[in-house]
Amino acid sequence: MRHFTRSIVWSGFVLASTAPFSSAAPFYADPPDETHPWAIHDDNRPQPARVEPGTFSSQEKPGQPPSDAIVLFDGTAASLKNWASDKAPDQPTKWVVVDGSFQCVPGSGYTRTRQEWGDCQLHVEWSAPAKVEGSSQGRGNSGIFPMGKVEVQVLDNYNNPTYADGFAGSVYGVNPPMANPLQAPGAWQVYDIVFRRPVFKDGTMLDSGSLTVFVNGVLVQDHTPLEGGGGHMRRSSNKAFPDKGPLQLQDHGNPVRYRNIWYRPLPARAIEGGDVSHMSPEATRAKRESLAASLRADAAKQQGTMKMLKLMESLVYAPDAATLAGTTQMSAAFFASVKDLSTEKLEAQKDEIRKVWSALRYCSTKKILAAALPEEAALADLIEKAGWNEKKK
């Protein structure tokens, strides 16, 4: 937190008053580089949005979604408004609500959401009929299709073997699950899915897309490439997906039930221009220049020491000849304003002086400045004589 009260002018430079001088600590850890637009521990990096966590489900009761989730089915007939017939999206779904669950009506066809989206965290709970009928792919079969393009298999595989890439939790026709953690028929199974669609640019694949799937809390797909989406009997190949698409649930002739269906949109990946840890050199450069411009605009509203530190901080992100010249002049003016202060006044400016010296030392050490400014050594000497050096532990 920054503390500001009245200020005094000394030798042509505005100093903080005798109130404690404190500020964010931008001159602390490794600075940005060619593929990282932020410094380590960067206070200018956006804070995470607050999300109230949900609760876990039990067999008797579905859990609560997190606060930012978009709920698609909550157990009520009212949530049927979110669903449509897949072959006639302008028509309501033919699936029905039974005892708080969304149940497939065999022969009615797939159902799909009216909403469309892309990358997401998806939560779905499903239950195969407690009365076991059929075997292999004929037993409790359905499917979850993010964007309607790739299937995460739903199948009653409790003591029911089938081909491996068609098992519950498989990316159907692409990759088997790493484990089979299903509970007995009639129990609720919990799927948590992280879906990333393929990214193409000018016909070239930049990212194949992926699925990460947890079944009843057990990881069964670990960032599995989509390979075009998979399918029945035929190998698929990488291809572009649209930017958005609906969630589909499959009618495979079994009265599979669903509940507690919700999703959270995911932020863009670095390859799409998202603000993440490691970015392309082009995106990094643009972000750093934007941050530097914002800091210089903020500096224009400040005066004295705060103005100088803001300008110096902007140089950490992007060089600028005018800013460097101004910072150089201001650091000289700052030293001139403190070098002849009385012991009492000097002690009152202790935190401010140490802050400026630390910033100068950082900028020279991290090569933000072409060479160390003479004020760095002069302030270091002043600090040494005043006995303000931190004691080594």
Keywords:
five-stranded antiparallel β-sheet, eight-stranded antiparallel β-sheet, 393 residues, alpha+beta, 6 helices, Jelly Rolls, elongated
Which helices and strands, and how do they pair?
Blueprint: E1 7-10, E2 13-16, E3 70-73, E4 83-85, E5 96-98, E6 101-103, E7 111-113, E8 120-127, E9 142-145, E10 152-154, E11 189-196, E12 199-201, E13 204-207, E14 210-215, E15 218-225, E16 248-249, E17 257-265, H1 281-299, H2 304-317, H3 321-338, H4 343-348, H5 350-365, H6 374-386
Helix pairs in contact: 1-2, 2-3, 2-5, 5-6
Describe the structure in your own words:
The structure is a single chain. With 393 residues, this protein is α+β, with helices and mostly antiparallel strands. The protein has two domains: 7-46 and 275-386, no CATH class; 70-272, Jelly Rolls, CATH 2.60.120.560. Helices cover 22% and strands 20% of the residues. The chain contains six helices and 17 strands. Strands 3, 5, 6, 8, 11, 14, 15 and 17 form an eight-stranded antiparallel beta sheet that branches. α1 (281-299) packs antiparallel against α2 (304-317), α2 runs antiparallel to α3 and α2 (304-317) packs parallel to α5 (350-365). The two termini are 27 Å apart. Residues 1-12 have low confidence and may be disordered.
